[in-house]
Amino acid sequence: MAPKHLSRRNFLKTGSLGTLAGVLASGERIPSAMASALETDFNGNPFPCAVIGFGEWGREIAAAVEDIEELQLAAICDNFPLMLRRAQRAHPQAARIADYREVLDNPDIVAVFVATATHEHKDIVLDALQAGKHVYCEAPLAHTIDDARAIAQAGLAASNQIFQAGVLYRTEPQYRSVFGFVRSGAIGRPAMTRSQWHQKTSWRRSSSSAERARALNWRLDQDLSLGLIGEVGIQQIDVSSWVLGQKPKAVSGFGGIMHWNDGRTVKDTVQAMIEYPGGENMMFDATLVSGFDAAYDLLFGDDATIILRDGKAWMFKEVDAPMLGWEVYARKDRFYKETGIALLANATKLEALGQDPAADDPNAKPPIWHALKAFADNLIYGPFPAIAGPELGYESTVVAIKANEAVQQGKRVEIPDDLYQL
Amino acid sequence: MQPVRLAFRAMATRFEFVLTGSDAVSLRAAGEEAIREVKRIEERFNFYSPASELSRVNRDAASKPVTCSGMMMRLLAACRDLHKETQGKFDPTIAPALSAWGLRARGDSGRVPSPEALETMQETIGLDHVTTDETDRTIRFRKPGIQLDMGGIAKGWALDEARLILEEAGVQSALLHGGTSTTVTIGTDHEGSPWKIGVEDPYETSTSPKWLIAVPLVSRALSVSGVHGKSFTDASGKEQTQFGHVINPQTGRAVSGPRLAVAVADSAAACDAWSTALLASPALRLPEHVTGTAFLKTDSGWTVTAGSLHRTWTVPSPLLTHPTSSDD
């Protein structure tokens, strides 16, 4: 397995920087015709990578890595022996390593995916970048502004390395497709957004060791965790900010421990109103108490409203909205008394491949897969500035930290513009 | 000590976990993690979801080697071991046979396939048509038409994985079941007694269950297979015959009833495979690690057709005639 030496030379030589950067920024996979026109050192051998942190999310990342042909899951790192035993069961081909420094010392490993507890990201990411590794760091980047800034600045400084933040929907095809619809004016002028995330679960982790159980349950500790709004809501708030093209200026938060009164200090039910400079507001709520209606995102405009849920999207037109040329051909689904126009990412491509766009997509992948695929494409053809690069990772983390502050204190918290500056 | 109960739907059935111990908060957390694992397994091995890993294998493996997850390779290796152990009576490639018998798709009401259809179908059954490369982690089918269906083992496999997660979390007493047909236990119940699992007469129509046998389990698993459930009655011959969703892979014929098979072993996956195999071929010789019995219902009640009742099993009602027992 020959590790790839990356350099900007790879695509500067092609003379089509603008076109290629556009394709990559769109999050689409590289068309084969364009890929063949590129020069790259990639010789078909997958890139040896390591996942650092094999908790719940680390396992999802490892599964996605295993499902991307350009990546090789060479090592799994966790300082808890139990997690390494699980790694052995799920990924017997990967080396199991307890100390992340050993991963960084391995010259064969090209990239690391950091999925440890949020407050443990900083040292690992800084050391990994220092060691010359490409880095994917889960979002939020950190639990404090200082740590998040340090991570993002290190990512920016490592200009010949990839740094990608785990801001997932920026690379997810359905969301990207909807982003295009909204930006083309399909919903008219955006008025507001609303998102929810509901699950009936304790959010607690269990271990036979009390000491380990405390470490595993960092999410329930307000000193280490950004709570539901910061650890989970960060993704949906980013969708709102992305679609509106603005950064939040203030957050009003509310919440309480409504059910899981088990010693935790973070709220199990939260609501927040996120204010944008343009006057639009986002309403967000999340709970661990009820699974009713699960998770979705709503984008309201004066011509139409779009709902995104379960990797699918529909648009609901206002009766006075102008007719869009394509909508007569689009599939329509009934929702109680409303009719939604199905917005299908890659519908024409599916038809071209002889697949029914209305059927479940046999190639459907979770958002984390698309995020890591973008990372892999960057390894092959880059490094380019990642779609979810250090700046975006930092900005979304700032919002997460401030939103959590608002929820924990039950007040309105302003986010001054200069806080977004690195 | 109040047991913690968790229930959820997966694999087209209801799963239930009963966990006992002194720390309810910790038990629930462990149970939730085990549930997530079962759901992950369901997603990966869902025969009907076009986006599942199993569907990708079924779609592409006849034309090229398909790179698979470590979990897929591990499950297929377990299938191969059980296929060998059951002398081919457990086989995860029987999907085409179930389709031919009209026992696969939702809404199918069942039919007896023609001899020609049976013959054609037999050409696509057999785990030998599935090759694996452990180094490259690839699966390849030797010819088109092969379909892997983990339905005969996935429930037990998922329960085994769930048990492992619970044990790792320090749970020392639990009962887990999937659709009541596959059960796995950890330790004893909260009073220190073995978990007692009743196998009921599926043909009994009265509201109160009639127990055929009761099986005590301590850190072991049990699975029941029967001709009831997804089945149909064929009246084209001299007598009405009930055919069930278990197929003998070597003849391609659906097992006719009324029959039941019970298997007890350490692993729920092994129990699933063995109860299916025993139903298809009651005369199979059981390995040391499996206790199993096949039953047939006659006019005079249930009778043991193969294997024997273990000495620890009890017969709570006179439904079962001529019981014999063994110390195996």
Structure description:
- The complex is a heterodimer of chains A (422) and B (328).
- Helix content of chain A is 35%, strand content 22%.
- In chain A, helix 7 runs parallel beside helix 8 (145-157) and helix 8 (145-157) packs antiparallel against helix 14.
- With 422 residues, chain A is an alpha/beta fold.
- Chain A folds into two domains: 9-170 and 370-389, 3-Layer(aba) Sandwich (Rossmann fold), CATH 3.40.50.720; 173-361 and 398-417, Dihydrodipicolinate Reductase, domain 2.
- Chain B has a domain at 53-73 and 91-148: T-fold (Orthogonal Bundle), CATH 1.10.3980.10.
- Chain B is built from seven helices and 19 strands.
- A nine-stranded mixed sheet of chain B has the order 1-2-6-7-10-14-15-16-18. In chain B, strands 3-5-4 form a three-stranded antiparallel sheet. A three-stranded antiparallel sheet of chain B has the order 11-12-13.
- In chain B, a hairpin with a 3-residue loop joins strand 6 and strand 7.
- In chain B, helix 1 runs antiparallel to helix 6 and helix 6 (154-168) packs antiparallel against helix 7.
- Chain B is globular, with a radius of gyration of 20 Å.
- The A-B interface holds A 56, 63, 66-67, 69, 82, 85-86, 89-93, 201-202, 204-209, 213, 262-263, 359-365 and B 25-30, 32-33, 36, 49-51, 53, 55-56, 59, 67, 69-71, 74, 137, 164, 168-170.
Outline:
Chain A has 422 residues and is α/β, with parallel strands linked by helices.
Please supply descriptive tags for the structure shown above.
A: 422 residues, alpha/beta, Rossmann fold, 10-stranded mixed sheet, 6-stranded parallel sheet, disordered N terminus, B: 328 residues, T-fold, 3-stranded antiparallel sheet, globular
